[in-house]
Amino acid sequence: MNKNNVIEVRHVNRIFPVAGGTFQALTDINLEIPSGSLAILKGRSGSGKTTLLNILGALDKPSSGKVFIDGRDIGDMSDYAREELRRTQMGFVFQAVSLIPTMNAFQNVEFSMRMAGIRDKRKERVEECLRRVGLGGRLKHMPAEMSGGEQQRVAIARALAHGPRIIFADEPTAELDSAMGAEVVRLFKEMCTQEHVTIVMTTHDVGLMDAGDIIIELESGHRKMEMPKEEQSEDENG
Q1: Which one, 54, 74, 157, 222, has the greatest CB density within 10 A?
Q2: Measuring CA to CA, which residue among 48, 39, 28 is closest to residue 5?
Q3: What integer pLDDT is reported at residue 210 of this predicted model?
Q4: Is residue 44 predicted with pLDDT exceeding 90?
Q5: 26 Cβ contact partners less than 8 Å away, ≥ 6 residues apart
Q6: Does the reported pTM lie above 0.85?
Q7: Which carries the bigger pLDDT value, residue 208 or residue 163?
Q8: Residue 157: CB atoms within 10 Å
Q9: Is the separation of the CB atoms in 116 and 98 below 8 Å?
Q10: DSSP structure string for the chain
Q11: Is the pLDDT of residue 166 over 90?
């Protein structure tokens, strides 16, 4: 495995049993994601984006093939080791923000640090993360007192607080308007640079795709190979 890559995927297939047979959701997927990059998985609904994201995030296992995180084959890990990997080295942001409604913004973010077993300087880190997403003045606000965009930013702060190596975000802008969606992606880019975290997000919003350092397009469970942007420009210019 290339030491610059935090994720490598080799010949991954995912097959689900269905009534009367099987359904192949992913077919022979290969990819590499360097550390500190923003990788965007794009494709239409049903293309396999979320299935692939779940496998990369150790929430699901491939039917065949290998997934390496920091050089470790996560398919060879025990269930306990996979859970530990998710709690300590990964953060998750979902389309449904899933904040705990009885906790304020500060408590929601602190919760991820408690789950990761972090005891030192929690207050300072939570406040730093909420400031980073523009909510330094909303620490005591409950989810019901915040807009959808603010709730999503709390969810991003929560995913970041325990210092993960990778954040996985499944359609994090789907419920936001275009301006707020662009702001979320700007935050992700900033986090990659300042926190040295790798972010893998799914989206079908064509307006956000150029922001990615890496674009991975799926079509009917296959990776669709694209011409690099530099070559596209040369080809368009004749």
Answers
A1: 157
A2: 39
A3: 79
A4: no
A5: 12, 13, 14, 48, 51, 52, 55, 62, 221
A6: yes
A7: 163
A8: 28
A9: no
A10: --TTEEEEEEEEEEEEEETTEEEEEEEEEEEEEETT-EEEEE--TTSSHHHHHHHHTTSS--SEEEEEETTEEGGGS-HHHHHHHHHHHEEEEESS----TTS-HHHHHHHHHHHTT--TTHHHHHHHHHHHTT-TT-TT--GGGS-HHHHHHHHHHHHHHT--SEEEEESTTTTS-HHHHHHHHHHHHHHHHHS--EEEEEE--GGGGGG-SEEEEEETTEEEP---HHHHHHHHT-
A11: yes
Residue listed under structure tokens 């011409």: 227
Angstrom distance (rounded) from CA 207 to CA 125 = 32
Q: What is the pLDDT of residue 195?
A: 87
* Angstrom distance (rounded) from CA 116 to CA 35: 21
Residues 6+ apart with CB under 8 A from 125: 113, 118, 161
Residues in the chain: 238
Please give the radius of gyration of the chain, using alpha carbons only, rounded to the nearest integer: 18
Q: What is the pLDDT of residues 98-134, one digit of tens each?
A: 899 999 999 999 999 998 899 889 999 999 999 988 8
**Residues of the chain above pLDDT 90, percent:** 67
Q: Residue 97: its pLDDT value, please?
A: 73
> 64-69 and 5-18 as β-strands: parallel, antiparallel, unpaired?
antiparallel
Tokens (6 digits) for 13? 């297939």
